[in-house]
Description:
Layout: E1 2-7, H1 11-16, H2 20-27, E2 31-35, E3 52-56, E4 66-70, E5 76-79, H3 83-88, E6 92-93, E7 96-97, E8 104-108, E9 113-118, H4 129-148, E10 153-158, H5 171-174, H6 182-193, E11 196-198, E12 212-213, E13 225-226, E14 229-234, E15 241-246, E16 258-262
Parallel strand pairs: 1-2, 9-10
Antiparallel strand pairs: 1-16, 2-4, 3-4, 5-8, 6-7, 8-9, 10-14, 11-14, 12-13, 15-16
Amino acid sequence: MKIISWNVNGIRAVHRKNLLVPFITEHDPDIICFQETKAQQSESPVNIPVYQEYWNSAEKKGYSGTAIFTKEKPISVTYGFSESVNKKYNFKDSFGDTSKEGRVITAEYKKFFLVNVYTPNAKDDLGRLPMRYDNWDPAFLEHCNELQKKKPVIMCGDFNVAHTEDDLARPKQNIGNKGFTNKERIGIDNIITAGFADTFRLFTQGNGHYTWWSHFGKSRERNVGWRIDYFFASKKLTSKINQAKILPDIMGSDHCPVSLEIDLG
């Protein structure tokens, strides 16, 4: 099974560039997860009959949003967190209500759960960091832990944080900046401590492997980037993973896709 995750930074924009459907056709994933779709399903021009589509769009038009395109119909699909998690945490701050921004979709398959996430950005002034650290990250992990009690979990998406110094080109200059604060990095530490593996690091070590680049200063051409898009998997699944890759040559967004190939038998 091949699963791809891609923050498209506007699914309509990538489609207009004629880069989305050719990419999907060439790579032929069984499942593709999108983040930052910036559209309602009714607004999407993408129609690939072999895939069933599940969308969680933000209430605010043209903002945030996630979607899963899948060849196999899931057993069930849920949007956001459970009612018990929603009651336990506060997702509102001065920027809005993250529970209404279409940031999580969970699809249940026979042998695993797939969680597609678009984690809130901490903002340049770190104004959203308190909500993220105190509420979003713990809620997301609690959600995945509850799923993991039932069957293994694969989670993917834009986590908006570089976990270690190997995950960004200029770590020393960015310590304490959004995407590389200790509080954001602890969120990934906690995911790994809970029994989830960073699948890319099962196969590839070292720096120079990035999934997002700034539009400024020819950052992408110079590969001055950040690895903020991930696949994590329950450790029960790691022996079944054949490949976890970054696809930096795929254009159309400021992020590139990441992929996972797994043999579930």
